[in-house]
Design brief:
This protein is an alpha+beta fold. 22% of the residues lie in helices and 38% in strands. The protein contains 16 helices and 31 strands. A hairpin with a 3-residue loop joins strand 18 and strand 19. Helix 2 runs antiparallel to helix 4 and helix 3 runs antiparallel to helix 7.
Length: 768
């Protein structure tokens, strides 16, 4: 009898609205970030006891409506959408904790990448493939699996059986028709409803290619009327149909081009509209979540007298809590015991399974959580060579666990990359790169890269093989050549009387390297180089263009053992993460000195000598948040370098071949002899003031204490300073920066530089 009474009570709670007072439906429009307006509206309705018996939505409205339908409170939604997580969803950013540095050790200044599908010319007749969407959708896919997979099981795939009956709308791209989701995979349904054209990848379902529901119907009140016939429909609308798009908003222009006419007029006599037109918020401006939600809350409160007059029935906080608890009890934990991969060759499938490591234990069925799956899934996707459709999680009633079905494919194997740096200095650098990558049971890649600028030029050819023999490891080998021309270059001087050493430096070597991952963000590697360095310089003032530079050649063999960790958020001007390196080196070689004009005038003879030295280095750069101040982050750095670097034939060759302290982008392009030493300690403090996401002021102050500037001198006399300030905006294709730098050297100069793009340099044969 107890169970029977409980069933009757549950039925009463579910169907009481139909038997008595008015039934209420709520419809939520699309609108991108503006759709956070709905959270404030729902919050106000719930605080005033206004029942929501049915809910429908499109695009962002489908996300808000779906989360509410599975029992998430407005306060929980508000917390979620104010967090960094929403930024990751809508930019496709994979958090640093998921990235796999073992697969991302190569850094290039590429801005544009074209993939050449040379093996599959019949695939649509395309050879060069451009991205089909601006934002990778994998973060969004994972969020929907996490939030909605268990709820899909709890409702049995019937959206009428959610805590609140729910509908969402998608668009059939081929037939230009509306698709109403009433049942099935809840997360996938909502994902199709907000597949904004050009922004997110569309979803294929039952042979249909589904896009954002806002294309066809951005305010789906009609489905509430057809399926539930509520007595009252409350509309929450945050957009204006068919208005002129903003010139500087890509999202507004996409919607203006793709959206059909939407009927925003609720049925006469039963509709109550809560709306606002946001002229000061763009479609992706999620940084203003608090403001948008508050607007919805205030607007709903203004309409509350009218709403309360029309709707007599009330629902108490205790009743809502009981409904949420009852539905939550039906949601199974997101635990997986099996997965299947389709779309790849057998060898590629084996490669992915080894990379995912989800079945690395020997039991017939290894259990793993959603967090474990997400971590390994992002690891393989962050490699950039494999893409995945929306993973489908299905529940097995027998095992009471979920199964995953993943459809994957490899991206075209050949990449053509263009990039470099536009600068107010001599570092106007052009870059072109070619990469071929083949994935089978192991991964093999070949890279050809070239950079050219008045200051710096390089050319490298390298090949890497990744293996799995009980444990992953790589072997890499290649040739690298680079040239630095510090002779009468433009560095952005703001003062006269410069005293920089005029020199040229050439570095060429062959190398072999092997390494293994140490955790997610660290790699232990061993490298050996064989090649030569050439140093060209004047040893006195008063030269002209007809003079010949003195030349030192150093034929060397060098090796380095390094444990490196990297998790910085940007290639240049980082504001979060860590870069740490602990290394040991050994260098042995033969120096050959040939005097030029100045050396001959000084009476210097030709000289040859053997040189060798050991070195050890510890560097750490760490950026972290200041929790009490949202707009401020702080960083520090330590660089301790110890070597017994010998004296070469003259002080110029000795200085050029010595380790250099170069903590900033500008310090890497200017030759300052005072910032080089056989051993030194460098420290830095780097606060960052953030004006908005990706736009910030980065301040840097460094101290440099060398060991070779006369050890009998006081520390105060040997100590040098660097001050550096960078105003940075990180665009989608690279950083734009305006920088001012000051070095505490004899030249006593300030430097002002503008850069757009990436100014990156090859590793040197002497390591440091």
């Amino acid at each position: 009898m107890t169970h029977l009474r409980a069933c009757f009570l549950l039925l009463f709670l579910l169907f009481a609205p139909a038997a008595g007072a008015q039934r209420v439906g709520v419809v939520l429009s699309g609108g991108g970030a503006k759709g956070l307006y709905h959270i404030g509206v729902i919050k106000a309705l719930e605080e005033n006891g206004i029942p929501i018996d049915y809910i429908s939505g499109t695009s962002m409205g489908s996300i808000i409506g779906g989360l509410y339908a599975i029992g998430m409170t407005p306060e929980q939604m508000e917390t979620e959408f104010k967090s960094q997580q929403i930024h990751n969803w809508l930019t496709g950013t994979i958090e640093n904790k998921y990235k796999y540095y073992f697969k991302q050790m190569d850094r290039t200044p590429a801005i544009i990448t074209l993939r050449l599908d040379v093996k599959n010319r019949n695939r649509g007749g395309k050879v060069a493939q451009m991205p089909t969407n601006l934002v990778p959708s994998n973060q969004l896919d994972m969020a929907f699996i996490e939030y909605f997979s268990g709820a899909s099981v709890a409702c049995g795939g019937d959206f009428d059986s959610l805590m609140i009956p729910f509908r969402c709308i998608a668009t059939d791209a081929l037939n230009r028709t509306e698709v109403v989701h009433r049942r099935g995979d809840l997360g996938k349904a909502i994902r199709t409803s907000m597949s904004i054209p050009l922004v997110f990848k569309p979803i294929r379902t039952d042979s249909m290619l589904l896009y954002d529901g806002g294309i066809y119907n951005n305010f789906p009140w009609q489905v509430l009327e057809e399926d539930f016939a509520p007595e009252v429909i409350i509309g929450s609308k945050c957009v204006e149909g068919h208005r002129n798009p903003q010139d500087n908003s890509l999202m507004d222009q996409v919607f203006a081009l793709t959206m059909m006419h939407t009927d925003y007029q609720l049925p006469e006599g039963k509709g109550i509209m809560i709306d606002r037109i946001f002229d000061d918020v763009s479609m992706l401006d999620f940084t203003r979540a608090e403001y948008i939600i508050e607007c919805g809350y205030r607007d709903a409160l203004e309409k509350m007298p009218q709403i309360r007059e029309r709707i007599a029935r009330r629902i108490s906080p205790a009743e809502m809590a009981a409904r949420r608890e009852a539905f939550a009890d039906r949601i199974p934990p997101l635990i997986f015991d099996d997965y299947a991969i389709s779309g790849l060759t057998p060898a590629q499938t084996q490669y992915v399974k080894r990379s995912l490591r989800l079945d690395r234990r020997k039991q017939p069925r290894s259990l793993y959580s959603f967090q474990q799956f997400r971590s390994e899934y992002f690891k393989i996707l962050s490699e950039g060579e494999i893409e995945s459709e929306y993973p489908e999680a299905t529940f097995d009633d027998t095992t009471q666990h979920f199964k995953l079905a993943m459809t994957m494919k490899t991206k075209p194997s050949l990449k053509l990359m263009f990039g470099g740096n536009i600068s107010s200095t001599a570092l106007n650098q052009a870059y072109i790169g070619l990469e071929y990558k083949r994935i089978g049971k192991s991964a093999m890649s070949v890279h050809l890269d070239g950079s050219l600028s008045p200051l710096y030029a390089s050319l490298s050819l390298r090949s890497r093989n990744d293996f799995f023999i009980g444990y992953p490891f790589f072997v890499e080998y290649g040739l690298t050549g680079s040239r630095y021309n510090y002779f009468r270059s433009n560095y952005g001087f703001l003062a006269k009387g410069t005293d920089l050493t005029y020199s040229k430096y050439r570095d060429g070597y062959a190398y072999a390297q092997a390494g293994i991952p140490v955790g997610r963000q660290s790699v232990l590697s061993l490298q050996a180089n064989f090649g030569q360095d050439a140093y060209l310089y004047f040893q006195r003032k008063g030269y002209d263009d007809t003079d010949t530079l003195d030349r030192t050649r150093f034929y060397m063999i060098s090796s380095k053992l390094e444990l490196e960790r990297r998790s910085l958020n940007y290639l240049m001007y980082p504001t979060r993460g860590i870069h740490q390196s602990i290394s040991l080196i050994y260098v042995s070689g033969r120096e050959e000195f040939r005097p030029g004009t100045s050396g001959t005038a000084l009476g210097l003879p030709t000289a040859n000598a053997n040189r060798h030295w050991f070195g050890a280095r510890f560097t750490r750069t760490h950026y972290f948040d200041i929790k009490s101040v949202k707009w401020l982050s702080l960083g520090y750095m330590v660089d301790l370098t110890l070597t017994n670097h010998p004296s070469f034939t003259n002080e110029y060759a000795t200085n050029i071949s010595s380790p250099a302290f170069q903590p900033t982008p500008h310090s890497k392009i200017v030759y300052l002899k005072e910032l080089r030493s056989d051993s030194y300690l460098g420290v830095g403090l780097m606060p960052t003031i953030e004006f908005m996401p990706r736009f910030y002021l980065k301040l840097n102050a460094y101290g440099f204490l060398p060991d070779n500037m006369g050890r009998k001198e006081e520390i105060k006399q040997r100590l040098r300073y660097i001050f550096d300030a960078n105003l940075v905006y990180q665009t989608l294709v690279g950083p734009v920066s305006l920088s001012i730098s000051k070095y505490d050297t004899k030249s006593n100069n300030w430097f002002l530089t503008f850069n757009f793009g990436y100014a990156l340099f090859s590793k040197k044969g002497l390591f440091y």
